[in-house]
Sequence to fold (783 residues):
Amino acid sequence: MLSRTADHLYWMARLTERAENLARLLDVTHQMSLVPQSVAAENQNWGAILALNSLEEAFAKAYDEVNAENVLRFMVADAANPSSIYSCLRGARENAHAVRGTLTAETWESCNATWIELREQKFEQILSAGIGEFFDWVKLRSAVTRGVTFGTMLQDEALHFIRLGGLLERGDNTARILDVKYHVLGTTGEEGTTDFYQWGALLRSLSAFEVYRKVYRDVITPARVAELLMLRADMPRSLHACADGIVRALEHISNDHSAETDRRAGMLHAQLHYARIDDVLAHGLHEYLTDFMESIYALGEGISRDFLLPDA
Amino acid sequence: MDIKFYNEMYDAAGSLRPHYRAYADWLAATPPERIARKRAEADIAFHRVGITFAVYGEEAGKERLIPFDIIPRIIPSAEWLALQAGLRQRVKALNAFLHDIYHDQEILRAGHIPREQVLNNAQFRPEMMGVDVPAGIYAHIAGVDIVRAGEGESYVLEDNLRVPSGVSYMIEDRKMMMRLFPELFSRHKIAPVQHYPDLLLENLRTVAPQGVVDPTVVLLTPGAYNSAYFEHTFLAQQMGVELVEGRDLFVRDETVFMRTTQGPQRIDVIYRRLDDDFLDPLAFRKDSMLGVPGLLAAYRAGNVTLANAIGTGVADDKSIYPYVPEMVRFYLGEEPLLNNVPTYMLRKPGDLKYALEHLPELVVKEVHGAGGYGMLVGPASTKREIEDFRARIVAAPEKYIAQPTLALSNCPTFVESGVAPRHLDLRPFVLSGKGIDMVPGGLTRVALRAGSLVVNSSQGGGTKDTWVLEH
Fold:
């Protein structure tokens, strides 16, 4: 298939997934903020989202204070912020538009409908209707698009590039959410019910609360949360599951010069496959997640070079 | 009922024409609420599917719907067969003319067309001299605009031989009618049109460079901001070929390749929807970011087929148009079956004098214009507009032609105030490869403003489904 077509498909999937995960991250932050805490602590949590996306500077140019409403406006509806949900969904739609002939009618129409519905919502309306409802809508639209994509598209190269883009983004985003929240929760030193709600919110934001109960049948502990979201191969948003899918998708599309990218993906997968959570925590969770995100970044670069933007 | 104009549905006495009877019965029996609901449904569906076109001169990337009217334009079988024979003849002659002009120029030597009219024409491409194209076909796709002025009185307005568009609306209009009113299709025997993309692909494959057994065909688009981008994606998808932009292609050893995820892949036939000027920055416009450097060299070497060929504009130019009947006689030895509109060439002093004296009753067009931009419709213009245009003509008469204002036929159409007659034309799409093919009918465009004679979508025109009735 055309390299440019693959590029559009890959980014359509990445940006759709990014919007969904951003909704998840903002949702968990919002939910955690509902538990009694100091204003300073709460604003610090909102600030962490900006830091996570390296957006402090861009934010400071347009807003004077880091607080819930400003960060939400910036990350949800600000067209000038290329990382906002608004911009991601616009980008996803633009990429889909460029290759609508490659997509099934259902996939294109779902992507287009998401954008049309989003465009008609004012931020004030979103706030007054309850921001949680909006996040649910973003997650639902992402699920619908993913559903019609995998339910209607021919299982050829096009679908493998869509899968690849989605998984790369999801792995990276799960790592980010875990990194920022684990850090915040690990340092509060609070015990008991507050902790339970905070961890519960994190799990819920990744659709993992019931999964946790089912897998561990026990109280929530940070180590198990980390294990579930990183190392369980059967947890669809875990780093391990994403690496699994990336390796499989690459097998379908490999070409003459993609051997190095295949090797790196395989290595990343093996590390997650054979890791033990005790070792990861002993090594330092933050360091481990940082390494993972760097590997994902390098994989993305390799995929671009080998398939999406070739020289000749 | 306006009796001055030919009405497609009613005769001069106000009685229904026989081929509209079944439709009119259905319309009378269908509750207005259902019609209104279906019209709204059509609007929503067109928006959701994104069947839009971009409008030049408005905010970049802005997309608009082309209004769709649910009253079809119906053509009886016999009438279509006559039209089809005329179209075949005309397109055949135009292709013969293009081959001749870029080879021996016999028609010039025989003195049928003034030499300078062809050789000094901006659309004449000296780069094409002596180049042999597969099957001698230059205009693989022609969109011939036809209007009716009276009973049995059809005229060709324009032969569009460069990158004619609109065929996707023809197909989408049919799909929409079948979806909204399936019962109409069991009451009538309507010739199908949805196989057009198959026909097109088949034609493109037959004109591949010699020796290529299983040709790779692509559709070359200027990109997502082109007004016809929807159509480009539609046709590429329907034909199952790659939709490429210039940056997806490159030329090595006079051979064209596309960049794919599995490495370079050779291209044999390019259905290009990009004007000559932008095709190759090495040969034509240097600033073109849309083309492929080296494409002309690969084309001249015979390693790739372009459809349509480079340089077809010299045959559909308005200054050459008056000579098309002569081409039919010269190349085919036949009398033309389709009429030309009498045309005054304002570069001729006698024609200029006549035109300046009769501006309020004439249509004046720019020789190189297209799309309904930059024209004067005398009877519909104010004194001021006519005087402004007169000044432009006097300043450069060679840039204009004039024609009598035709009494374009009209057809009942849904408008804000209800159903009213609106003027229309017809653009059949004629495909040339080893033979000449077309699907019955074409795209019917309708001027939605009362009295307007300009049907172009850029000027607020709409479309109708076109039915050719089978016996």
